[in-house]
Amino acid sequence: PLNAVIGYSELVADELSESEQAHLGDDLDKIGGAAKHLLGLIGDILDLTQIEAGTRAIERTSIPLREVVDEVVVLVSPAIRAADNALRVDVPADLKVRGDRFALARVLVHLLDNAAKFTARGAIDLRAEVDGEAVVIAVRDTGVGVPPEAQEAIFDRFAQADDSSTRLYGGAGLGLAICKELVTRMGGTIALDSAPGEGSTFSVRLAVG
Hints:
There is one protein chain. This protein folds into two domains: 2-53; 61-207, Heat Shock Protein 90 (2-Layer Sandwich), CATH 3.30.565. The chain is built from seven helices and seven strands; from the N terminus they run H-H-E-H-E-E-H-E-E-H-H-H-E-E. It has helices spanning 2-16, 24-53, 65-82, 101-117, 148-151, 163-169, 175-185, and strands spanning 61-64, 86-90, 96-99, 123-131, 134-141, 189-194, 200-207. A five-stranded mixed sheet has the order 2-4-5-7-6, with helices on one face. A two-stranded antiparallel ribbon has the order 1-3. Helix 1 (2-16) runs antiparallel to helix 2 and helix 3 (65-82) runs parallel beside helix 4 (101-117). It starts with a helix and ends with a strand.
């Protein structure tokens, strides 16, 4: 049903753009945007439910990290540019990690989308390096940061930095919970280093592939 709402709102908006009621197109764009947002939230809830129930198999194979990063960058670039942010990528071409390719891509999409959501006219860095027998993948932003009292629960489902963040930046706080579940099931860890006004760094550790 939501896909139908999105499709018809876009169709009517296109028709209005050629009429004297073009101003109504803005309202339809808002309807379509809200429907897409709701569809994304429902998808996140279903994803998290499947992961926690163990119905989604997570592999642990050797993955060429740079290939996954390049694919993810294409997906998230529009959201990053929309907030006038610069994305810098530093991932060696020959670096491999052990995990699930689809799961890793989902984690990176969520982390980069999260960085774009809480950063405006700033910079987002995606870097990876070998640390012993692990690869550390870090997503750093120059955004609003997370207060200390909110960091402990940041990976819990429906968690947000605070109530005002939910209203100002949107989202239901499921993306980071999904990241935590996927990284854990790939045998890795995820951590946050952040301070209000100084941005955030999310670091994922996975075994070398």
